[in-house]
Amino acid sequence: MKTQILQLEPHDDIISARDKMGWSQTSRILLAWPERGRVLTRRLDLELLLRHSQILGAQLALVTHDPDVRYHARRLGIHVFKNVHRAQNTRWKRPNRRKIGRLREPVQARESLAAPRVRSAPFTALSTPARLGFFSVGVFALLSITAVLFPSANISLNPETRTQTITVPVQASAAVERVNLSGLIPIRTVTVVVEGRESLVPTGNVEIPDQRATGEVRFANLTDREITIPANTVVSTPGSSLRFATGRGGRVPAGAGETIELPVTALAPGSRSNLPAGRVNAVEGLLGLSLSVTNPRAIRGGTDHTALSPSSLDRTRLANQLLTTLQESARLEIQSVLETNDLLLTPAPALAETIEEIYDPAGDQPTNRLTLTMRVAFEARIISGEDLQELAEAALDANMPAGYSPGPSTIIIEHKNHPTSQGESTISWEMTASRVLHAQLAEPQAVSAVLGLPPAQAAQRLATGLPLASPPHIDLVPSWWPRLPLLPFRINIIVVEPN
User: How far apart are CA 433 and CA 411, in angstroms?
Assistant: First the structure.
């Protein structure tokens, strides 16, 4: 049955507590007292809370160690638990409250009109022995009531503890989505994105153009008029990108076949501008309609020099080197985000995706340093510690002995062997789960068993009838009182919480 758990704070009063109860939408309300501070310790407070829960149509129970609250709660028939876990796993019995009606018989002193009046006898004072007798009876009655109501006792009980251990065969698979009580648990994937930069000195070479080629070309007049050739006139070799410019201007005499030679320099440096004789034969621009051109001698002087340049092997080597560094960074980051009891199945994370890869320089350009910037995603397979805890708790609960409840400590998980692959997607191994159990003490029966007994006899009966880790400790108030109280509500049971 669903239970609404409401935590009280040290500053809460009856009004704020009732307001919190008003938020509940369940049929069971569990009020948890704060560990420190004392709130709502009066009987009236508990009566108001109980009445408010009845108006809401819900059962009320308390979680507290306050002796006054526990005492008043028992008198009012309110369930009291030592922790929230026990309250949730215990069935709440509704108290059988019998309504006791008090019949009042009306007294009517009616005298018959016809009956004669009877004169009462005069009052006679009691004798001294009679008065002493009545006084002695009153004192004895007062002493008897005091003997019943005055003494109280606090009994400290240390419940027995035992360790529960179980070995569970585990099978993990990526095809499983949730924990199965048969031992199947899912394999989960953790993905991290890392980035970094690495560089190296390239080992490749590239030829870089250095000096420009120079030579002379001969212009021939195709017309019967004089042709003026301006400086920087461009001549070229058809079918190639080689172009040359004249170093100065000149004039070609009038008449077809008249010639003039002018010096030229290659527009682009490098050895590829060196040409044998007769390769230059085009004049760019309108002058090409009036002049022809050729190089009667070879054009020479163009040179190159060698420079460092990254090769394909350099790029591959740099990428592998940076990926190794990023993989180690991803491994450390994955280990930092793992929770308690998480089990890492892949010691080295696998490359999932290359998000960004930038080389500088990008092509075969000359450089003394090749730099690579990468942003990649790595993934690793893990077994979640929460899944292992869930499987271990289910296995332990199924084998928990009667009369015991688990303590608040965390389940301890140990792996007996390393996970081994069973097929392509299944991994199996064995793990050992253990936890501490505490004996459940029947407090009402313990109180009933020691009513009116001497402390030594009461301690012996409790040690014999209850599963205790150590003898019970009984404190009487007053300490010189010879026996435990006769009334159950004057005995307070304190269950010592184990460390």
Answer: 7
The residue length of the chain stands at: 499
Pick from 6, 171, 14, 207: nearest CA to 87: 6
What is the token pair recorded at 184?
Answer: 């199947």
Residue 491's CB is within 10 A of a number of other CB atoms, namely 23
CB 63 within 8 A of CB 30: yes
Q: Given this model, what pLDDT does residue 332 score?
A: 92
- pLDDT, average across residues 120-146: 66
Dihedral angle of Cα 463, 464, 467, 473, to the nearest 10 degrees = -10
- As a whole number of angstroms, the longest Cα–Cα distance in the chain is 184
CATH 1.10.1740 fits 211-302, yes or no: no
Q: Dihedral angle at the C-alpha atoms of 276, 277, 281, 284, nearest 10 degrees?
A: 70
Computed from CA positions of residues 118, 122, 128, 131, in that sequence, does the dihedral angle turn out positive or negative? positive
Cβ(183)–Cβ(422) below 8 Å: no
Q: What is the pLDDT of residue 1?
A: 65
The whole-number pLDDT of residue 56 equals: 84
The pLDDT value recorded for residue 353 is 93
Q: 138-142, 261-265, 333-337: lowest mean pLDDT where?
A: 138-142
Q: What is the pTM of this model?
A: 0.51
403 — alpha (psi -120 to 50), left (phi > 0) or beta?
A: left
Strand 412-415 versus strand 214-221 pairing type: unpaired
Contact status, residue 353 vs residue 326, Cβ threshold 8 Å: no
Domain 3-88 has CATH 3.40.50.300: no
Please tell me the distance from the alpha carbon of residue 411 to that of residue 89, in angstroms, as a whole number: 18
Each domain of the chain, given as residue ranges in start order, spans 3-88, 148-161+440-495, 211-302
State residue 442's pLDDT score: 86
**Cis peptide upstream of residue 361 (ω within 30 degrees of 0):** yes
